[in-house]
Amino acid sequence: MKNLNTQTLNNAIVDRFAPQIIVETMSGDRVPADKVVLAGAFAYDVLEPITVMTLEVTDPNGAFVTDDNGVVLDGTQDATKDAPFTIKELGDYVIRYVIKDGKGKTDTYVYAVTAKDATAPTITLLKHKESAKVGETVELAGTEVADNLTEECTVVVYVFGPEGANVKVTEGKFEAAVSGVYSVRYMAFDADGNYAFAFYDIDVK
Questions:
Q1: Does pTM surpass 0.85?
Q2: DSSP states of the chain as a string?
Q3: Is residue 47 over pLDDT 90?
């Protein structure tokens, strides 16, 4: 302490800066069975030493993730060490780093790794006719659709006439009004937006 013109001056150093953390993020879309390696983080502080730097990872259900070495990433894991883990289900995996300096000041860094379904459904056309007569009501092929996750996929069907115009389909049938080749196109979607195509032609005479 010093006095200047009866004013008391305090020369004590005051730490007004929180510590900072440096993280190599592994964000982006993943699929189940992907392996993610969370590289060890770095941290620095202007005045105080870093006393705590931890890592927490939760799965899409909010449960703590156990890494591939058997370590539970529950916020007590040393964030300076690599933490490899395997994606097991769809959804957001939330990664949270926390650091604290000697004065109790903290910094937190949070991001997410998202696991999505990237597998398209399969679509199989059942027995169908590939020729018809002009004026005939043509029944379109039935389909069998399978997906790795979605129980019931959405299937849409389009019929294009000989000139390329869209032909009206009613209850799986269309009217072959003119001669020529009609193109039948199927598209199957799963709940995550993955899709598959199938098609065939019908020759109308």
A1: no
A2: -EEETTEEE----------EEE-----EEE-TT-EEEEPPPEEE-SSSPEEEEEEEEE-TTSPBPB-TTS-B-EEEEETTS-EEEE--SSEEEEEEEEEEETTS-EEEEEEEEEE---PPPEEEE-S--SEE-TT-EEEPPPEEEE-SS-SS-EEEEEEE-TTS-EE--BTTEEE--SSEEEEEEEEEE-TTS-EEEEEEEEEE-
A3: no
